[in-house]
Amino acid sequence: MTAATPDAPLWQPGPERIAAAAVTRFQSWAASRYGAPAEGGYAALHRWSVDELDTFWQAVADWFDIRFSTPYESVLGDRTMPGATWFPGATLNYAEHALRTSEDPARADTPALLYVDETHTQVPISWSDLRRQVGALAAELRALGVTPGDRVSGYLPNIPQAVVAFLATAAVGGVWTSCAPDFGARSVLDRFQQIEPVVLFTVDGYRYGGKEHDRTETVAELRRELPTLRAVVHIPLLGTDAPEGALAWAALTSADTEPVFEQVPFDHPLWVLYSSGTTGLPKAIVQSQGGILLEHFKQLGLHCDLGPEDRFFWYTSTGWMMWNFLVSGLLTGTTVVLYDGSPGYPDVSAQWRIAEQTGATLYGTSAAYVMACRKADIHPGRDFDLSRVQCVATTGSPLPPDGFRWLHDEVADDLWIASVSGGTDVCSCFAGAVPTLPVHIGELQAPCLGTDLQSWDPAGKPLTDEVGELVVTNPLPSMPIRFWNDPDGSRYHDSYFDMYPGVWRHGDWITLTDHGSVIIHGRSDSTLNRQGVRMGSADIYEAVERLPEIRESLVIGIEEPDGGYWMPLFVHLAEGATLDDDLRAAIKATIRENLSPRHVPDEVIEVPAIPHTLTGKRIEVPVKRLLQGTELAKAVNPGSVDNLDLLHFYAELAASRRR
Predict the structure, then answer these.
(1) d(CA 438, CA 430)
(2) Interval 529-554: pLDDT, tens
(3) Cβ–Cβ under 8 Å, residues 143 and 183
(4) 38-69 b/e with 16+ CB inside 10 Å = b?
(5) Taking the mean position of all CA atoms in its chain, how far away is CA 104?
(6) Coil, helix or strand at residue 645
(7) Cα(144)–Cα(404) distance, rounded to whole angstroms?
């Protein structure tokens, strides 16, 4: 394949790939059954999916053979946002669908899960064994008195036991929630104390970066500070015995018990996810069994094109929504690859090695990891057999153009590169992967089906080829049914519907291009607005971090009392680099040439590292607050930051500027 020009796609699916894609077959089927357009490709199907929203979601439920134990009265009982009601009257169970493949005798002994740790040893868990363990544990949860609506929590790494515990919870109608074991006690309690769990699944520790990390003291603190717990289940990842009063995992999962699936209303809570908000307690976001079931079938079965022959690997932890998304790969009969460990151990090539060893067909990672590989000058396509990898998907932040080029050049030139964007708030994507569309450098392929994604100006006018607010003008099934402990719904309303009543505003800057793709520019709540021009921080990061001397960067825009505007760029340097006049000049020249003179910062300041949320996102808004003089205790929730000490630098800088 020839290199792409600025106007030409980087990648174009061939006719055979388009014909074989599930979304192509779905469109043809929906045309004959539900009046979808037979011609016009994805763009026509997408238009129909938002214009005929009820019919589209009915078709999705039919196509994926959703088992409604009680039939629905209508598809969309109320379209009002917030508060839309989906499939009223229907009952079903998410876990029943996730384990449906285990009912097929031809598939029962094939792997449902493939577990890999830092030793890169593979442990398969068959569909039949997964079903048996879920059945045994679900029966034990019922024996412990867990009833529909009770919360069950996991302080667990990305291991098979976490998947079993989640599915058993869903099977009994419980509400799952989890945190990764690298979260400290305060961070976990900020989350779990809100939802008052009755059962806690824990490990004694975890392995990361070649080292063992004991968590017994943290677990003891969680037990003391969660008075609603009726039971604690001990998983001996490091080989220790269960502490006094805790139940042993093996004893709860050894029976040969057929699972019993509680049939719950469509809008019954499935899990609670937590926002990465950096002030106040994390938002406890509740999503429904039916809403997640339909949304993930659509996303994984149509957009990601996953099926029984695929292996689905996404680097994630249980503290990030991508873990929940990954586990839903089971819905499509796909083998789900679970990796527990550091993304870069024993070296930066680790994830590519796992993709090779597990035969991953869809490999998902972060944009930051792709750029780290590029900077480390590794060559995955040369050094590993990645012939089974059909798609590399990225999320967490926008994939810079250089990341697209690197994947194309260093993995495979016939590689489907899917940069996707969504959020914990919907546990899915607003825009991203479409197997039948071309890939343009720096762009997400298209808005997702059923998602009326638009870019709006402050007055609510739709924009094309201009930067605007990311809005969704119609409801999605996986939008939160509520926030926990938000009885009047005010916190939920204010989070998404305050700026444009009745329309979801997500808080990202986007551009919808004239050829239907999407460009993400970063968070709008940390917008740079210089000389009346709004700019996305992601664009600056992409330009600056091309320089080999820059490991990571953070740009902040400060409105000053005298009407001025101060825009510093903070840089974390690569080992051996020095921030001298030459490097400062190179940084400013790179920004000026790739963006514009307006994007050039007022100062370039070296920092020991860039602070992140616990899920790895750069912290912009709290740093802005600190630089504006807000006290550290009020600017950030300490339990939401990966390294609180890093923020003292910005607080001291603000103090020195005021002096």
Answers:
(1) 18
(2) 665 556 668 778 888 998 999 999 99
(3) no
(4) eeeebeebbebbbebbebbbbbbbebbebeee
(5) 30
(6) helix
(7) 50
